[in-house]
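Support case: flavin-adenine dinucleotide complex. Customer-provided input:
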Amino acid sequence: MQDEFIVKGGVETTAKNGAVLIVGGGIAGVQASLDLADSGFKVYLVEKTPSIGGHMAQLDKTFPTNDCSMCILSPKLVAVASHPNIEILTLSEIEEISGVPGNFTVIVKKKARYVDLSKCVACGQCIKKCPIKVDYEFEEQLIKRKAIYIPFPQAVPLCYAIDPEKCIYLTKEKCGNCKTVCPADAVNFEDTDQLLEFAVGSVILAPGLDTFDPTQMGQYGFGRFKNVVTSIQFERIMCSSGPYEGHIKRPGDDKEPIEIAFAQCIGSRDEKIGNLYCSSVCCMYTIKEAIIAKEHQPNIKATIFYIDIRAFGKEFEDYYLRAKKLGIEFVKSKIASVSELPNGDLEVKIDADEGSLTRKFDMVVLSVGLTRCRSSDSLAKVFDIELDEQGFVQSSEFCSIVTSKEGVFACGTFTGPKDIPDTVAEASGAAALASSLIAKKRGELAVRKEYPPEKDVIYERPRIGVFVCHCGTNIGGVVDVPAVVEYASKLPYVEYAGETLYTCSQDTQQKIIDTIKGKNLNRIVVAACSPRTHEPLFRNTIREAGLNEYLFEMANIRDQCSWVHMNEPEKATEKSKDLVRMAVYRAKLLQPLPKQTFSVNSKALVVGGGITGMTAAIELSRQGFESVLVERSERLGGRLNRVRYMMDGRSQREYLDSLIRQVENDSNVEVLKNAHLKDVLGFVGNFVTTIDVAGSEKKIEHGAIIVATGGLDYVPTEYDYGRDNRIIVQSQLEDLIADGKFSARSVVMIQCVGARCPERIYCSKICCIEAVKNAIEIKKRDPNCSVYVLHKDIRTYGLHELDYRKAGELGVQFIRFPDNEDPRVEISSEGLKVNVKDASLENEELFLQADLLVLSVPIVANQDSSELAQLLKVPLSKDGFFLEVHMKLRPVDFATDGIFIAGTAHWPKFSKECVSQAYATVSRAATILSKDTIEGEGIVPSVNECKCTGCGLCVEVCPFRAIEIKDGKACVNEALCKGCGGCVATCPSGAIQQKHLKDEQIIEMIKSAVME
Ligand SMILES: Cc1cc2nc3c(=O)[nH]c(=O)nc-3n(C[C@H](O)[C@H](O)[C@H](O)COP(=O)(O)OP(=O)(O)OC[C@H]3O[C@@H](n4cnc5c(N)ncnc54)[C@H](O)[C@@H]3O)c2cc1C
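Agent response - structure generated as follows:
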């Protein structure tokens, strides 16, 4: 493996090309493309299906936030499509690659689409006339599609494709209806496959996952019994844009199910079918599916049959507990088989702790595992990379992104099963590594997005356009959208009102632009979903039509109408009209706002000198950026200094020492030890930070901040820890083993000491795996030593499951105790007696004699996190870890621009995951540091000096220190201001007004709200 490659310093010089090839257009490929394109590289994004989006496009909502999956994905897809530095090649696969890192030549086979991308307007005339119906892959075969089709309504590119194997013109020269009816003359039966050649400097492989096909497990009846569905089918069933428009019913007979059984680990953790690993996401997505099913139809009774509930990620345990509170039943046992009753109901045979029993359900959902993607073998062959035994990319102990081939990187579910946030972080990490190899070529092939000149509308009468979104049936299934449009069209100054199926789709952006131009509109209202996720997209769209982006207003008729009033469609429609009216009345008073441009300091500040911080600093250097690395203690390395060996038994020392050497010798990195932050001023691109270095002060100027301050080991107060030297924690056991001082004949480990308890609800993710690691080491050294691991669930997620299995094979005994009955320990001079109830043996009491009691304790948040959070003005989660801006799609970004988070300061995690996140923060920071200038916020306050008394209250409340009193008057530094509005609300004389949210604009809205 290329560990030296990862930690090598300095920018590579051999690169000849500033382009990157990305294979796979799922969320991983999309995220990597955007990061690279935004930081000055050209991207070729190769996707084998007709649209980018991958599996995320199929999901209904996402855990644990319950965000609508398509709603958060769609803006990213549109951003990729409209990015001048990204070329999307759909229906394409890689044929060949040659050359060397920095200078590869790639041959891509682009299959015939038979529909001209540049002509198709996605009007849908063709599908009406196509006589052929085939199974619809995107809808998981629940319904049919036509031989000419778009994969899904928000597909990118939004263009039809003809299925060459099913089209009867292409196979038998019959029909041709689509060509006859196409008004754009886009159908081209003469289209042929093409071989295209590209020069790229590096490659990212993100081909994703496939879901396990349960037809091979005949005992569950999938494929034979219509009411047995897979979890991915259930996602489509629940989805408002899915085949049943979100109405939960059985595919067999349209009956609404009441009792639904969810069967876990179908195709995962299964020796018989050869998938030994845990798929990492199924427990959580099943909990999500059960919760959402109940939200749809509260009478649904969901029962989850499981082996272990693996709720190990950020806020997952809370989500699990919420499901329990909602009445979702959890049964610890595996479903052995399913049989069908004459009425379509299903009888489920369960191998429970108490023996086998049967239960009747209306529907069974098989929680299918994630499997290696179908093209992994062929990709591995073409790119000459090694895969592991389970078919995932063979990676090193410290980095999942590098492959065995230099210049070729991997991310997403291709490197192992994982959820969306981990996929997104790893994708950003891959973007960093792929770009640092060709850093010298940054900007050579990239172009800057140019907008048309801004139209001056200040003296024009308002001409408002209103676009009301159906969002599939998300809004349209409840709100009478045509009625809202009809109503909007009669409001004052409205020149255009229309409805759109998905306002965020690529074709609608063009429609908005065309309508603005065609109708000479100068203010736009979109009534759709949340401004939080979609406002930036629409603002960008109106900019492309030549309008200032602040001439835009959004009414959230999804969250505030169709979602909250889903059972009262008439009232939801009336409320939508009210919200649209309010938006229109405000829109007529909107004014264009200028944005200031600021220069960017390309240096970064990295806080924390553990593996995460050091990796980030080295990677910044490889990208060509200088950094200052601030470490509180006198030694670099952080928590990894206390880790004595890795899972494979090898020491981590060599790696850590080489990392420390490298960072200390890197001329681009200034290492400050015994140092901590005292003050942080400024804003993205232009921070000024005061650092206390061993008692003296140092000021540095920089453009971005990476927070990598790690976490702490919980010091237990439980089990007499600290009072008897036979009671220790896992890290102390590791020391005993590594120092050759381990001599016990019997060891009992207790999991979740100080975790998953009322004081600390969360699961600390790594403790089960730590216990397994140490148990294996003991057994390797002394097979006769008895090792018991007492647990609530063993959470060896992903490929760690193989280690759990190995520990079992070596004779480690795992005993599950009931959630609310922790083991008890009696201490005597003869030894330690552990009393535990075995939940698998109907809570039978067991007494274990131990020489050593080892407590598995969680990682807790750093005590000084809140101080740092205050300095940086960033939030902490309720558990005290740093809180990212969007858990799903921006997992390493803070809400404050230019500040990023990585490692265990964000959440407990392994070093490999810390490293991926470290690279991810560099990738995200590079999107800022690589620019000469950036734009500031337009929504800033203005001070009416005639009214200002200079009282200074605004100065006190401003969290960004953006206001000062000059010559007795408040004065706003627009560069520092974040537009929070605190000063406006505080000003006793009403002298400060927030641009874009002026009193008259708000009052006009309020007046219009009570008008009818
Ligand atoms: C039922 C289910 C529910 C889930 N729910 C959640 C959830 O609620 N929250 C969550 O965080 N995660 C969830 N997940 C996991 C989530 O779907 C994945 O983490 C995520 O989609 C992985 O993204 P990816 O880009 O790595 O892969 P994919 O989404 O699989 O994308 C890979 C893309 O690469 C393309 N491709 C493959 N081979 C090639 C090739 N040779 N050439 C070109 N292109 C290729 C594919 O067509 C695809 O478009 C769920 C998964 C399942 C199965």
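The first helix runs from residue 3 to 7.

Case will auto-close in a few days if no follow-up is received.
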